[in-house]
Amino acid sequence: MSFVTTRARPAIVALKAYSSARSLTAPEEGAVFLDANEMPCEPLIGVSGYARYAPQQPSALMAALAALYGVTTDRIMTARGADEAIDVLVRAFCEQDRDNIIICPPTFPMYAQSARLQGAAVKTVPLDPAFVPDVKAILAAADQQTKMVFVCSPNNPTGTPVDEKAIKELCEGLKDRALVVVDEAYVEFSSRPSVAELTGRYGNLVVLRTLSKAYALAGVRCGALIAPAEIVALCLKVLPPYPLPVPAVDVVLRTLELANRERLAVRRAEVLAIRLWFEKEILSVPGVEKVFPSETNFILVRVQDAPEFLARARKGGFILRDQSHQPGLTGCVRISMGLREDMERLLVLLKTGEAPSAKKGREASVVRRTKETAISVKVVLDQPEPVRIDTGIGFYDHMLEQIARHGGFSLVLECVGDLHIDPHHTIEDCAIALGQALKQALGDKAGIGRYGFVLPMDESLAQVTLDLSGRYFFKFEGIFPESRVGEMPTDMVGHVFRSLAENMQATLHMSVTGENSHHMVEACFKAMGRVLRQAVHRQGDVLPSTKGVL
Known about the structure:
Blueprint: H1 3-7, H2 10-14, H3 21-24, H4 59-69, E1 76-79, H5 81-93, E2 100-103, H6 110-118, E3 121-124, H7 135-141, E4 146-152, H8 164-173, E5 179-183, E6 205-210, E7 223-226, H9 229-238, H10 246-255, H11 258-281, E8 288-291, E9 298-303, H12 306-315, E10 321-322, E11 332-336, H13 340-352, E12 363-369, E13 373-380, E14 387-390, H14 394-407, E15 410-417, H15 424-442, E16 454-457, E17 460-467, E18 473-477, E19 484-485, E20 488-489, H16 493-504, E21 507-513, H17 517-536
Parallel strand pairs: 2-3, 2-4, 4-5, 5-6, 14-15, 18-21
Antiparallel strand pairs: 1-7, 6-7, 8-9, 9-11, 10-11, 12-13, 13-15, 16-17, 17-21, 19-20
Helix pairs in contact: 5-6, 5-9, 14-17, 15-16
């Protein structure tokens, strides 16, 4: 007999799965669906597919997740985060007032919470002093009513990974007795590989994954359960018929595109670098006694006075997580890694009791999405760093960097565009978004210089004059000898500055002469940066206008 037949709840094994409209008939191109009592119109102008239910397990999403985790689609179930997968497992296997689960505290509290909601008992086998599961003690604690053992790797809140050997020993020791559920919510941050591929070898192994952490989709709610096919089939009986919203599915599919996964891999590396730096720095904070090793995007620290430590952080606007209530974690606080500048401010606050003001002031963020491009821009006029540009067009990245560097302001701009067709949309839309961000960051324009500049570069001469007047006018004069510089067409240079001027609501006159197109284009962008440096520089709070408004 199979593991599911002998150990799952008999009522669930015998249960006939609910036949939702989309489980009976998958969406077909051109079909008219009159089977699910849906409205025949979309809820919003400009969206498509929101009026229809998504399938319980959307095929495109399942294929993407299976490829991401290296398993076949019959061995994976997607749900609203790993939390829902935990709940589904417990409801599928645990009988009320009869069965139990084993957890290894200190660990993620939702395992116990889901069991208690189902009326199942919770056995605890604490982690050893190194925060590693005690395999022998777990096997000794398991009885006939034990339906699953939860192991978190890397563990939350300690950050410690679990060796694959221990997972195998548990699977073998609990064969035909209990599920071994390995929660790998943070595995992308770890040096240890996932054990998902072992679900093809062990009939009682379940692996939980999530897109909330390493893939930055906490607000979208998408997780996965990876297990032998018969366990997945059983869990699908318990999962609601329409768990995932269409917009969430669309966002996940875009997130899992190769270029974006590569981008997120870079961001994860940055977070890990911040963690390594912060682990060393926080040891110099008064009252910090120990920093525990971590293979996640957070650290656990033991402090002399946890309530005072948390209150000190809270006073400065930082919310940390108290873990003192967990077994073996008296005086412990968990700190997630944020931006480098935020972690620097937190250190100053914890050391001095005074939080340096966040470098805000004149800043703005703009998110712009069209059919051709998706753009995120952040501008901070009163600080020079960071400057990070990624449009997919190397030369254009360099030119936009010149505007920020010579303008003396922070600029973070990311764009994913239809470069496989043409760079036009990416170049123009980035300029539009940057112009919008600059306009917002300028605010009421009190105290700015307003005007500015001429810039020579070798044989080239760019003349740029700017008036942050609140009125749009643009004039460009210049003929480039070559049609392209790198991947950037030179006929787009005028478009860039026209879009900037229009979206900044500024008057901009620009002319350029020279013999080398590269020098001419670069002179234009550098000159624009210098113009902005003069114009946005603030001295006092007097509005530079006799009309009293800009």
